[in-house]
Amino acid sequence: MKNMTLLLICFTFQLQAQNSKVGTIDIDYILSVMPELEQVQQQVAQYKGGLESELQGKMNGLEAAVTNYRQNESTYTINQKKVKQDSLLGLENEINQYQQNGNQLLGLKQEEFMQPLYTKIGSVLEKVAESAGYTQVLLRDNTVIYIDNRFDLTLQVIKELGIELKEEE
What we know:
Blueprint: H1 2-19, E1 22-25, H2 27-33, H3 36-72, H4 78-132, E2 136-139, H5 154-160
Parallel strand pairs: 1-2
């Protein structure tokens, strides 16, 4: 009975394996040929410019505060010097924190701007995969050891997106 169950399980897996069709897709390549990517890159650059501008303003404020401190240092009492130094240190820490947060915010904003492109690719991929009977689609990257290009859906998705490729691509 145990052998019969094992045989039945093996037979079921074999049937499932015969019914599956696996394809691949290169999302990065598709993104690189999408005309919408240029607009996303401009939006990211504009957002980055705003962050850098704000950071520069904070750095200019710190520079002005340091210059003011140095010019008036001789007139401060020991307690005033301590308070001013702590204030300058606080401004410097705030700038460092802003730089770290800025990098994270830039990454999040880039993902936000890219999301519509990923959604568009995903819906077209789903349509192409369904029409060709694919049960699984893998990302085409360095983790796949062998790929038969006949099962690569990248060019079909690009065509379905209405993107014309140059001959060399």
